[in-house]
TrEMBL record:
UniProtKB keywords: Hydrolase
EC class name: hydrolase
All copies of domain USP, residue ranges: 1-317
PANTHER family: UBIQUITIN CARBOXYL-TERMINAL HYDROLASE, UBIQUITIN CARBOXYL-TERMINAL HYDROLASE 3
Any GO BP: protein deubiquitination
Chain ranges passing through the membrane: none
Matching Pfam families: UCH
Lineage: Eukaryota, Metazoa, Chordata, Craniata, Vertebrata
Name assigned to this protein: ubiquitinyl hydrolase 1
Known EC number: 3.4.19.12
Xref: Gene3D superfamilies: Cysteine proteinases (3.90.70.10)
Claim: Ion transport is one of the keywords in the record: no
One Gene Ontology molecular-function label: cysteine-type deubiquitinase activity
Organism: Homo sapiens (Human)
Catalysed conversion reaction: Thiol-dependent hydrolysis of ester, thioester, amide, peptide and isopeptide bonds formed by the C-terminal Gly of ubiquitin (a 76-residue protein attached to proteins as an intracellular targeting signal)
Length: 317
């Protein structure tokens, strides 16, 4: 939770949007001025993830506290995301997805009669060309993290091509199997895996296996086919997830392959569906934050985050 909150709080445009939202007063007159303690059993349905996220970001950046415990936000997470209840180990990427999805849904719905997407429309820098909505209206979540994939499937029997567009908030990349044994940069055996190799493997033409036969409308039955992803629209902030947990029928293990990535200027142009329609700058990405899983196990370990602020890197542990 800390690694994800610290990373998101260092995405400036995203963080500033929440810090500038008006406060929503949730407490009624009786409890005003008194600190309220929550337990899981309390029937308090009037909770706002957006409001607790806003308060957490404001507290992190006000500079007067040496430490801050986001207990109210933690309580709301338990309240609205049942799979994160209890104290078992959880996955940081999964938490980030749930957090962003729920923030998006609440911002779409407005809160206490004030539609927060209305506030977003006034912020003209974000409202331009935000067609990549997960569902319904655009919010700050889709305006910053939202992109669009084109999924192209070709029937190998009759050649029929089917295309569909899928919105995304992040891309989950496999680490290609030929690099699996290389655990450090200086290890002798073979080339180093780069982020480009992972992206190439994601966008390469792939033949679907027998378990994933495609229902061809022309042949009117399931057929062998190929699949290819193109990026139709890049997001403002590109979130990439390296799939480091490998599952087989009997075994689950961590893929600890060394993956090299640039700190500046990751060029995404070659993965675009229509590269000629985008300017040279719009495809270049500089690194803003990294979330790292430490430990060799799948069900345990520790997450830390690295993030950049005003040109300096910080390690949040």
């Amino acid at each position: 939770m800390n690694a994800i909150l610290q990373s998101l709080s260092n995405i400036e445009q995203f963080c500033c949007y929440f810090k500038e939202l008006p406060a929503v007063e949730l407490r009624n007159g009786k409890t005003a001025g008194r600190r309220t303690y929550h337990t899981r059993s309390q029937g308090d349905n009037n909770v706002s993830l957006v409001e607790e996220f806003r308060k957490t970001l404001c507290a992190l950046w006000q500079g007067s506290q040496t430490a801050f415990s986001p207990e109210s936000l933690f309580y709301v997470v338990w309240k609205i995301m049942p799979n994160f209840r209890g104290y078992q180990q959880q996955d940081a990427h999964e938490f980030m997805r749930y957090l962003l999805d729920h923030l998006h849904l609440e911002l779409q719905g407005g809160f206490n009669g004030v539609s927060r997407s209305a506030i977003l429309q006034e912020n003209s820098t974000l409202s331009a060309s935000n067609k990549c909505c997960i569902n319904g209206a655009s919010t700050v979540v889709t305006a910053i993290f939202g992109g669009i994939l084109q999924n192209e499937v070709n029937c190998l029997i009759c050649g029929t091509e089917s295309r569909k567009f899928d919105p995304f908030l992040d891309l989950s990349l496999d680490i290609p199997s030929q690099f699996r044994s290389k655990r450090s940069k200086n290890q002798e055996n073979g080339p180093v895996c780069s982020l480009r190799d992972c992206l190439r493997s994601f966008t390469d033409l792939e033949e679907l296996d027998e378990t994933e036969l495609y229902m061809c409308h022309k042949c009117k039955k399931k057929q062998k086919s190929t699949k290819k992803f193109w990026i139709q629209k890049l997001p403002k902030v590109l979130c990439l997830h390296l799939k480091r947990f490998h599952w087989t029928a009997y075994l689950r293990n961590k893929v600890d392959t060394y993956v090299e990535f640039p700190l500046r200027g990751l060029d995404m142009k070659c993965y675009l569906l229509e590269p000629e329609n985008s300017g040279p700058e719009s495809c270049l990405y500089d690194l803003a934050a990294v979330v790292v899983h430490h430990g060799s196990g799948v069900g345990s370990g520790h997450y830390t985050a690295y993030a950049t602020h005003e040109g300096r890197w910080f390690h949040f542990n």
